[in-house]
């Protein structure tokens, strides 16, 4: 599937009209560069995830494997259809199929109450988002009542209507992508699903929302105004910091990764917003760089996040434990999973020479020239966005050290961990595939960008300046003398490390002995003296206290059994969603007296309705 | 010309590796003089490293291969960083492969491996040090990036050697924006290199230590490499500071071999001055409580933003 998409990337857009669906309403399918890119992303990652899942689901989790398999493939197919759809009807059908099939996958372990409520919240948010997307399509058809995307491209909307359509689409797709403040379902639903499904949802499904925003803003609506970009840029920057700060405070490994997905979606939307601003003020070269950064990061995030979710899945199966505070020392028991996860961890932390760094580098380059935007104030505030991206990236490194250090390093915190076993062969193949993706995307940025340029050219509707420079050197702005070469970078580090190792081995003896670690003379220290996940997140809670709704219970000095408790909550949940839920509840209660439960009353309602209709018609 | 470039590259790396412990020794010596102590020899860090290399390595039970690999990786990252920074000549072949942002990424890589290795043994101290180090890291990185941004905007490139070349070749001009960022950079340098207002390089008191806490389980050649890498980091930061703020004396582009020869004593003079200033700052300031560190680094960030605004408003 990935191969098919890769081949069609350079080909001309193909259109296909399928004579299925409702009468007079055929499904239009179309494969152009944009959908090919996202199809490639879907295919490349899902091949790794599926191999892993083949090993994983055998050991059972909730729903019977047969049904699970059907749901899984339905989910994959519907995501493919979303990317291929060329009219609003088939898009919405595929979009809903995607939401529903993933809902059933999320509630695989439906015997547990919290998983059922997570699934319900997910379904609710998915439908609110879908409504907004539907309204957006309604605006975009612009009175022509033609719902094919071709017709929408041809319609010219007045600026206020175009902006309405864009904002509605951003709301709808943002709800699917998990942009703050529409993110609340994401940290509930992703951990609830089985790990391969979490990987698909976090890795690929969020990207269909990115695809949707790209399709609507650049393709269907045509030329975005510059101020449109400010909205996704602001939301993206906020999501990036918000997500990563919350990730640092989490104690459950899959929730931590879910919050980290919010951060990465934030970075992608930041790139999108920046591209719109540049495009709107007529700076296509920089718009291309920002868009490249966003697309590149989408691709990277698929590989690294899927890798980490699958890694946690392997840990979960092997130990039955998802709380970070009860893990530790697994690098000795599960070396394959640990070392492969380490690659994902380094990539997600944005460290060179892996792939996460390349997209962040491109984004920072785009930010660097943002002060040339010919709008006062905007050009001064934009460079500060780079600092926010840097903060998010540095915090991501913090989160990843916590994630890897607490799970895989140190000493086992529970005696039961001694029985942990490494992943099976199929699972290893899946992990290796994704880890290899991270490394290749990191080392060959020029080749990847060469492919991405087709997509960017389609979106910006302008041919890009021809590439220059040798194959190993990434130099997106030749006139600025900026370049980065991951291959040489890695070679230099590897050479220095090897020379150092060689020199040390050659010149000095290699005597060494093993001893217990230094306990300061106190005698044996239990594994409890290591940092727990809460402990490691403590500086973040201290510094970013404003983000959290924290309740602390401190013991008094005279407590016979002292207990220290901290509850960390989400201010947005408590500030927006709970009041809104209460409001809905109150309105529903007020309307409840209509429902008397007697046939006579309902007949009366029908009669009154009929009378009203008649009065209207006559 | 190509041969000269390669020669410059080789000399830059060798000088950095050799001079880094000396620079650390010089800072310690200055500090001792300022504090009315009898000063240790400037060669002391070298002797220390040599002594450590002769010792038997003691490795804690339960150390994973990551623990043994980390010193080599951290040292390798720092040497690579030294090869990227234009400390003496700006015509370095390796600088096309990495710009200032990649340099920040390289420092971050070293930090992550250091923190992971510290967590590997599973002691309270190790994870405490790792947590604190990563905290300082995420506070310092945005500030460092803003500093680099200001310098990059003046030269409209993030390539370090191009920034240096640009500042050297134009006629002497004073940039107020660079003055603000220089203050910010000094503060970041102190924080990132475990110097006094943030961390104390000579203490082993658990309430205060950050960097030393991570090295507690290391011994012999691993410890030697780690300490050498720390010295190199300080040297590298100083050289980044020279490249951005006092680039004069660096052999520019077509300077040839004589310019290269001249640039070595110039670098020595700059390092001596910087070391004295560093020792002075460390002597007159007191160690901050750990949770004052965010305020310290936020101040550094604000100075960098001030530099940015000055540059954008005044164009200077």
The total tally of domains of chain A equals 3
Largest sheet of chain A: 2 strands, antiparallel
Mean pLDDT of chain B: 85
Described by the principal axes of the CA atoms, the overall outline of chain A is globular
Name the pair of protein chains with the most residues at their interface, and give those residue counts: A-B, 80 and 76 residues
Q: Strand-and-helix sequence of chain B, N→C?
A: HHEHHHHHHHHH
Gross morphology of chain B is globular
* Count of domain modules of chain B: 1
Total beta strand runs of chain B: 1
Low-confidence runs of at least 5 consecutive residues of chain A? 1-24
Q: Helical content of chain B, roughly?
A: over 70%
Rg from Cα of chain A: 26 Å
Cα-atom Rg of chain B, whole angstroms?
Answer: 19 Å
Largest sheet of chain A, order of strands side by side? 1-2
Instruction: Give the N-to-C terminal Cα separation of chain A.
Output: 59 Å
The run of helices and strands of chain A is: HEEHHHHHHHHHHHHHHHHHHEHEEHH
Estimated structural class of chain B = mainly alpha
* Number of helices, counting only DSSP H or I runs of 4 residues or more of chain B: 11
Span of the ends, CA to CA of chain B: 35 Å
Largest sheet of chain B: none
What report would you give on this structure?
The complex is a heterodimer of chains A (618) and B (316). With 618 residues, chain A is mainly alpha-helical. Chain A folds into three domains: 1-223, no CATH class; 238-463 and 482-508, no CATH class; 544-617, no CATH class. Chain A is built from 22 helices and five strands. Chain A has helices spanning 2-8, 33-56, 65-84, 88-106, 113-140, 149-154, 159-177, 186-192, 195-220, 226-249, 253-280, 284-319, 330-333, 335-348, 355-368, 378-408, 425-443, 445-460, 486-507, 533-543, 571-591, 599-617, and strands spanning 14-18, 27-31, 512-515, 548-553, 565-570. A two-stranded antiparallel sheet of chain A has the order 1-2. In chain A, a hairpin with an 8-residue loop joins β1 and β2. In chain A, α2 (33-56) packs antiparallel against α9 and α4 runs antiparallel to α5 (113-140). The longest helix of chain A has 36 residues, at 284-319. Chain A is globular and about 105 Å long. The termini of chain A are far apart. In chain A, 51% of the residues are buried. Chain B is mostly helical and 316 residues long. Chain B has one domain. Chain B is 72% helix and 1% strand. Chain B contains eleven helices and one strand, in the order ααβααααααααα. Chain B is globular and about 60 Å long. The model of chain B has no long low-confidence stretch (mean pLDDT 85). The chains are: A mainly alpha (618), B mainly alpha (316). β3 of chain A pairs parallel with β1 (57-60) of chain B.
